[in-house]
Description:
Structural class: alpha/beta
Mean pLDDT: 96
Strand order of the largest sheet: 6-9-12-15-18-21-23-24
Number of strands: 24
Helix content: 10-25%
Radius of gyration: 17 Å
CATH topology of the largest domain: UDP N-Acetylglucosamine Acyltransferase, domain 1
Number of helices: 3
CATH superfamily of the largest domain: Hexapeptide repeat proteins
CATH architecture of the largest domain: 3 Solenoid
CATH class of the largest domain: Mainly Beta
Distance between the termini: 50 Å
Number of domains: 2
Largest sheet: 8 strands, mixed
Shape: globular
Amino acid sequence: MKKILAIVGAGHLGQQIAHFAITDKHYEHVVFFDDFVVEKHVLGYDILGGVNSIESSFNKGFFDEILIGIGYKHLYKREELYNLLHNKIPFGTIIHSSCWVDATARIASGVIIYPNSCIDANTVVDANTVINVSCSIAHDTYIGKHCFLSPNVAIAGFVEVGIKSIIGINSTIIDNIKLVSETQLGGGTVVIKNLTRKGLYVGNPARFIK
């Protein structure tokens, strides 16, 4: 049976997800929903309407599963849409075939893991999180809901990343660290102690900016 993925958000992130969904053979076809795009098609795939059209389109059988293609600048919207839809519509999960994911790791619904990432033993990646290209997450680490990990992030063992956190490109988090919810790490940040105040951190070692 042909399996169809719906993606909320037809911008660059949504288009990347569509590319991996099709080229890595997770789905046979893709459709989009977007409140802000006037075009009827993107990448040759139909835009079926806005967010208000999602539930009726699912009930009509236009798609089978859904993912949210809204990026790191709108994590509150990612959370809002996931909470609105997850009890009504099945969320998909995409783990690119080039990734290594230990059999004991737990990957929740709505998660997208880009190519060449490594997810170690007993790691949990919670719902609606995006893990970008070539991230490494060591054993017994927890990544909270609605997070966004940029490319080449390295996270050691026994780390806890709170919900709606943004981990910038090439950031490093050493072992046994906790990041409060809504933490944002700028590119190349190195975290060597717990971060208990939500906001933006940069540098080596990480320092609070705002």
